[in-house]
Amino acid sequence: QVQLVESGGGLVQPGGSLRLSCAASGFVFSDKDMKWVRQAPGKGLEWVSQIQSSGATSYADSVKGRFSISRDNSKRMLYLEMNDLKPEDTAVYYCAQVGALTRGPGTQVTVSS
Questions:
Q1: Diameter of the chain by CA atoms?
Q2: 49 - beta bridge partners?
Q3: What integer is the mean pLDDT of 72-95?
Q4: What are the tens digits of pLDDT across the range 6-59?
Q5: What is the SS3 string spanning the chain?
Q6: In degrees, to the nearest 5, what angle opens at C-alpha 92 toward C-alphas 110 and 69?
């Protein structure tokens, strides 16, 4: 079955950086468009970024220019490089296949001084 496991979150000061990773299994990773979504405390899920199987990428306006999504199909890994982090980026971050409901347990990102 589809399994996704996120890692790399933590506590960082405003302006700092983190790199999130997502390990995928149970499906043909290279064939799937993948995305990152996040959920801030008390709020709904927010789409952050996605990368197509072709490698084409797209970003929410709130993270454009600061975040970078990438994938390594040979390792079945999805990444999110996050720079210039802001307190409003605080959330649990999840990876998922585009168009699917299955998510991993998520990884907490907290941006605070």
A1: 41
A2: 36, 59
A3: 98
A4: 999 999 999 999 999 999 999 999 999 999 999 999 999 999 999 999 999 999
A5: CCEEEEECCEEECCCCCEEEEEEEECCCHHHCCEEEEEECCCCCEEEEEEECCCCCEEECCCCCCCEEEEEECCCCEEEEEECCCCHHHCEEEEEEECCCCCECCCEEEEECC
A6: 95
